[in-house]
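[[Sequence with tokens]]
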Amino acid sequence: VKADSGETVLSLTPRHAGDSPVVYWSTKPEVTDKDQKVDDLDNFTTTEGTLYFWVKDTTGQHESAPAVRWLADLKIRHQVEPAADKRRVRLEATPRANLYYTLDGSNPKDGTRYDGPFEIGPGAYRLLVFARAGEANKTADFQIPASGDKTVQIVDAKPARLQSKRVSLDTTDRVFGVINRFRDQPGTRFKGVRIEIGEGENTVTVRFQEREITAAMIEGVVNSLRDVLGEPEALVNIAIAEGIQFDTGFALKEFAKIAGVELKPGDVSQEE
């Protein structure tokens, strides 16, 4: 998902549809060749939360299967800003979605529709947000501390995400500290990863862009590059630009300790 535009970029691979398949799409389940055609299968962009894709074999050798539904993975973010003697809360979802919220812990599906920034007082709040875009939906749980309280509230047992906060593992020890801790946790996924091996003009860089990868994958890339370069002790540093998903809040806190990351209010979201 492109955070600035809310667009999702998809790569589509038709199967069992001959040599010249044509893909059509719609926001409704009934897709035909009268609907819009996908012009670029490798770079299809959309701001919708739900789409249906239907493939037609132009040679007539294969029958078309029913349309396939795609649901966006909604991301919900919040930002708390000072506003005179109160505070102002902004909500955002990518892709774009209808948002509903509560501040008292009740079900946000029945909450207030978000139409723009709203004000809160100086106390602590539990902000629950429900996002819906077509058939895609998600709920997020944010702890907003009282004014002046810089403590980040994290529930140990709930899944947690370190938001799009740039994280730098700037030493080889930190890189392998993270690898060793999360190697066997495929649920911990890093997005927007850049790996650098070596120093100065001899540095080799690998970028994963939007692909989410695990600590085990990072270890495999690092070890392979060291082997290929013939430098088994080459220095390694890693930058993570698009956030990290953890199975638990406890795991996120452990990562922050290993990586030397200072968590601040707004850095962490925990979804239901």
